[in-house]
Task: structure prediction
Amino acid sequence: MKRMPGMSRTTAALATCFLVLAGVECSAQPAIQPKPNSEPGKAYVVELRFADLPGPLAEITGSVVYRIANLECVPVDKQRAIGGVRLAPEHSLDIVWERQADGSFRGSVRENPLLDENSFGLGVCRWELQTTSVRFKSPVTKFLGGVGAEKLRAGETVKQHYLVADFHHPPGVIEWVFGEKAGHYLEKMGPQFTLRISSRKAE
Result:
């Protein structure tokens, strides 16, 4: 069974850190504290729907990850690799999931909430939306789901699968359980529950 660790409030990628979806700013990236953008751009409504959930959730949180898109504005770090390397800074903002009368959850995501500016003296850095994450917990297990920027903008629906057994029993040394595509889990592994993530432009 494929399992991958999850994240908390700052980001990571495989070679630098591992926690992209959950929004953890990696210590290997150049330090930066972006300012709020007074014109945050398009707004999207993200909706979460659980099906066959085997019990009440202990918690549901999330974050939206933004990354600097133009690396030429970032200084070269010569300590990370021979000849140097530019690492794109990332920043996460919390998203609040509000429970609806029908049992679904909704949250709001902005396209450009961070101000583009000349943070390193090498030209204006442009922040770009990357991922929206969902972190939820049963009484004993932490789960992670999410949707990338392209699917969010396109209004595509993402359906992620989880094992009911993991909801009731921690899966061992893995801290977080990631959502998987349909067909990933064999039938003999037991019943599943799902998380459906959809989005639309806010009116």
User: Anything to note?
Assistant: Residues 1-27 have pLDDT under 50 and may be disordered.
